Amino acid sequence: MLPDTLRWNEEERQLEILDQRKLPKEVSYLCCKTPEEVAVAIEDMAVRGAPAIGIAAAYGVALTRPITKDALDDVFLRLARTRPTAVNLFWALNRMRKVTEEVTDIALLERVLLEEAKRIHLEDIEINKKIGAYGASLLPNDCTVITHCNAGALATGGYGTALGVIRAAKDKGKRIKVYADETRPVLQGARLTAWELYQDQIDVTLICDSMAPFLMKKEKIHAVIVGADRIAKNGDTANKIGTYGLAVAAKFHGVPFIVAAPVSTIDPGCSSGGKIPIEMRKEKEIRLLPGAMEVPQEIPVWNPAFDVTPANLITAIVTEKGVLYPPFDEAISKLFG
Ligand code: MRU
To answer: I need a labelling partner for 327 at 20 to 30 A (CA). Which of 59, 76, 91, 314 fits?
Structure first.
């Protein structure tokens, strides 16, 4: 059984965050009693994945003590500064902000904020199951897919988006084989996706990122399925660095490229991918090769955490409200009424 990504401990009044930096070697939890502890856990990627950081941030707001308008303002600012690309973080903070505007009684607010964080958490699991059901219907009964990074239970409240599609396909009785990209430099594919799927007895094989195009040439790949951090109004999609290259290779080989994400990942206020802020992370993530040599300091390092896949490389976007097809600007406009 997979450990919970996030859990609220009612007795201790604390958010317990599965420390994903230690996986798969060690299953341990960070206990957060303050919004600052949650903010650091998000920044340092103890918790990661667009929906999961949104949920963690919501609990972070609920941990504000004492609750005053100024304290809440500081907490919202602090949590919003943690990671810039995944829009789910800002979506969840906006939901929490609305609660603070609607409830003025401080004693009541403490309770209502926690209830809202729990609701965001539970809703996310239900949403992922719907995404899974829609996405699974796109896959043949016997299929092989490639996924990148980790868009699984570990990246969400539970079940996962891209891996939710894979789980749902398996639950429907489909035979599914998964190739997981290792996902340099943080290795979410090798450390998290391969481990997560293996725990659920889903057929998974690990590959290096650079192997995916050759694999598409050698073997019948029925789809590439990935999650997303932010989808612009025209369908351009930010996801883990390496996704764009995978989409280019998929287009070249005629492999459908499927994005699985909740509606909260769509940013209707962002017209195209060029407007999506791309997080730049520390050089040491690239410089320090796990268990091996260190790249000399004189050699510069470029470390964008995400890239943007242009809408014209995407076959379908699977959401909890159904499957969107190109032209995505029209489909997304319809979705937001
Ligand atoms: O840097 P990370 O590990 O937070 O990046 C995660 C991804 O890119 C995921 O694919 C994305 O957030 C979707 S998770 C359902």
So the answer is: 91
